[in-house]
């Protein structure tokens, strides 16, 4: 079971890299032309286009089934596994305004 969890996390990480690296992009935020000229800080994905397309389809199905969970997965992996970034965006996802 642990191997499946590790493999899933690895696939999602590679999918996020692929999404950022892929110039044809799949509807997720990408770098600007200026950023590409300046050099990419995104490491190249170690995943085939076919594998990435399967992961992309799974993420799309998750987003259709549970929009908030799908967005959290996208935010987490697209933001480089930055939990602080995800937590700051959750209130926007669920439509809640937090006041401190």
Which spans of ≥5 residues are poorly predicted at pLDDT below 50?
29-37
Number of strands: 0
- How much is the radius of gyration in Å? 15 Å
Q: How large is the count of helical segments?
A: 5
- Report how far apart the termini are: 40 Å
Order of helices and strands: HHHHH
Shape: globular
Average pLDDT level: 79
Helices and strands: which structural class? mainly alpha
Helix content: 55-70%
Strand content: under 5%
Largest beta-sheet characterization: none
What descriptive keywords fit this protein?
100 residues, mainly alpha, 0% strand
Give a structural overview.
This protein has 100 residues and is mainly α. Helix content is 67%, strand content 0%. The protein has five helices and no strands. The chain has helices spanning 2-21, 33-38, 49-65, 67-78, 83-94. Helix 1 crosses helix 3 and helix 4 runs antiparallel to helix 5. It is globular, with a radius of gyration of 15 Å. Mean pLDDT is 79; it is low at 29-37.
Topology:
Elements: H1 2-21, H2 33-38, H3 49-65, H4 67-78, H5 83-94
Concise overview:
With 100 residues, this protein is an all-alpha fold. It has helices at 2-21, 33-38, 49-65, 67-78, 83-94. It has 5 helices and no strands.
């Amino acid at each position: 079971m642990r191997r499946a969890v590790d493999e899933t996390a690895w696939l999602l990480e590679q999918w996020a890299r692929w999404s950022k690296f892929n110039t044809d992009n799949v509807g997720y935020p990408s770098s600007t032309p200026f950023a590409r000229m300046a050099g990419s800080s995104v490491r190249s994905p170690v995943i085939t286009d076919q594998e990435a397309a399967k992961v992309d389809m799974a993420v799309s199905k998750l987003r259709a089934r549970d929009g908030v969970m799908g967005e959290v997965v996208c935010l987490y992996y697209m933001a480089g596994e930055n939990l602080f970034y995800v937590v700051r965006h959750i209130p926007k996802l669920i439509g809640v305004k937090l006041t401190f």
